[in-house]
Amino acid sequence: MHAQDIIQAIILGLVEGLTEFIPVSSTAHLLLVRQFLGFQGGGPAFDVLIQLGAILAILLVYFERLWRVVVQLPTNPAARRFVLSILIGFLPAAILGMLTHNFIETVLFNATTVICLALIIGGVALLLLDRLNIEKVYQSAMHYPLGLAFIIGVFQCLALVPGVSRSGATIAGALLMGCDKRSAAEYSFFLAIPVMVGAFVLDSYKHRGDLSGNDVGLIAIGFVTAFISALFVVRKLLAFVSRHGFAPFAWWRIVIGLLGLAAVWIGA
Known about the structure:
Elements: H1 3-19, H2 26-37, H3 46-49, H4 51-61, H5 63-72, H6 77-106, H7 112-131, H8 146-156, H9 166-176, H10 181-206, H11 213-244, H12 247-267
Helix pairs in contact: 1-2, 1-11, 4-10, 4-11, 5-6, 6-8, 6-10, 7-9, 7-12, 8-9, 9-10, 10-11
């Protein structure tokens, strides 16, 4: 491994961990930063494989609560309903993602203009949502009704377009359906677990013969960096959202999208 590759893997790991659970689209940031750095290491599945580090951060922060759910599954209807709500929220994007995986990976991941436009449009949508005065009906991510979980899962399908943001789509759906900001963000954490594990398994299998020893080393570096940075975000995000809402993330999306478009037009 060259020192430059190691530094770039660390940068991409930081980008993944810092953006995965906030509504700014980690995929868009990874693709744009990768292009800016000219990073070619880690193999074709690098971006997906380092996401497992971010997932482990979620599992660590919520381990006690999730373990309690697992232990209570046989006896507690509320625990079973919570698990079922996550599975129902996961299914729409899982099914559509499997059907469109090749198109997304080969076409949309290379459409920089589409990614930048999605960042900008999503930012404007978040600004509007942040200002809507919708009655807050649901305030606990652990007790979302199954119908609500399905609707949020349908919104999550929008995130199959790079730049939309998985957390942004799920949070937007939750807010429109009357969830408060804190529980909407927390539910997006929980929903990320099966979604990202599924993407990890699918890409690991698809690219199982494409990884070299050098790729594995770079992925490990990105993985550890993503875990550490995501741990910080998960521990701080809910308090930040409760105080400031989603407007800071919306403006960030718009700025990055505009800068990306400018870079594309200058390069053209």
